[in-house]
Amino acid sequence: MAKTKAQQIMDHEHVHTEQEVTQAIRDIAAEFEPYIIRQRRHFHKYPEASLHEVRTTSDICGQLDAMNIPYERPLETGVVATLRGTAPDAYRADGTPRRRLLLRADIDALPVTERTDVEYASANEGYMHACGHDCHIAMMLGTLQILRHMTDDIHGEIRIVFQPSEENGKGAKMMCNQGVTEGVDGAFAMHIWSEVDAGKISVEPGPRMANTDWFRIDIHGTSCHGAMPQRGADAVMAAAEIVNALQTIVSREISPYEPAVVTVGEIHGGTARNVIAGSAYLTGTVRTYSDTAHEMMPELIKRIVTHTAMALGADAELTDYTVANVKVENEAASSERARAALVKVLGEGAVGRYRGTLSGEDFSAYLQHVPGMLAFVGCRNPQIGATFAQHSCFYKVDESVLAKGSMLAAQYAVDFLAEE
Question: Residues forming the annotated binding site for Mn(2+)?
Answer without folding.
Answer: 131, 133, 167, 191, 391
